[in-house]
Queue: 2 jobs
Job 1
Amino acid sequence: MIGFFIKKSFFDGWDNFLGLLLQNLVFTVLGLGALGTISYVESTPLVFLILLVLLALFSVHQTGSYFLVKDNADYHGASFARYKEGITRKYKHTLLYFAVVFLVVLCSGIIIPFYFKLGNLIGYIIAMFIFWAVIIVLLALMYYFPLTYLLEDDKPSKIFKKCFLVLGDNFGFSIFLAFWSLFNSVISIVLAFLVPGVAGVNLSHTVGMKLLMFKYDWLEENPEENVKSIIWEDLLFEEKEKVGNRTFKNMIFPWKD
């Protein structure tokens, strides 16, 4: 399953290179805006206000981006109309996402350092507890927007709860997905955040959740069975047919086929 995940994520990104690039340009502008604000704005209240606005814009763009990469993972092209549709339809999910990310940033940038600076055992314990809570929330957030668009009728709070259920049920894969996202982020730094960038990471989260849904659909159809009975080769047969027999080698050296 992991091997096919890597292949599908790569070729879905390759087939939609331009769309991901355009999305990443917006993410890059927002990131540069945040760095510029921290570096050049001296008023603390003004810095906080600007960063809050940028975080809100980031959350809105994330909503639209995940909608586009969901289409990409389903083998469809992206369009600005679809981007706007995602933002319009899921504004409540955006608000919850913004609130959670704001708390994560607050904990990471202010609360955890505060308790560490206390310099006592209680402070260290509280800081480490909050640190691991933040890590778990970040892992769960990988599934938030993919589930939002897969489970259209679920409210934001219900989606958020299901993120933790998916995380707990697929902890090994979630750790792999987190490291895969980190790997993509490192590559993005080298390539000026244009590819794969945040949009590419979003695509990998979406592909991962889409493949996991095959497991849950199968378990729903076969309630008497357990996870160990799953044959991924059979579950992913149609997806593999859609991706085709492409390889990295014949993509770079097509004349060698």
Job 2
Amino acid sequence: MVFDRNPIWTQLQDKPAARKYVEARIGGDVLPRLNWVTKDPSDIPFDTRPERFAVKPSHGAGWYHMVREKARLNRQELIDVCRSWLGRNYYDVAREWAYKHIDPRILVEEYIDDGTGPDPIRYKLYTFHGSVGVIYVGAGIPGESRCSFYDRSWTRLPATVAG
């Protein structure tokens, strides 16, 4: 991706645009339900949200907040976090060009629970020339995550995330 400037990469990093891409190809039933999209987090209708939901920006990676108990939620604190996301460009954080021109918005989605802990296990499939070459499996909450990499046969690879 260092030299590949195909606009599809921006579309796939922009969460609402990526949803449309997936819906057009395999249908929206594979995606978490999208409950709200806004540029002003103070207009999130917290009272009509379910007990658990996820909040994340359209234009970042690893930025999210899982609301596990709505009654214990500090709404103003979450609104402030969302505003901080809206005021940042992930391109400036990680220099990933595909994020540079994404319109910042806040998404409220269905909470997904796979029963493995506070956050569901994350899977990422890295493709090369149209074929999956590396599988990333991540678990844990931000700042305390752990991950492993595998090949297509699920053989663990001697790789780590730099940081």
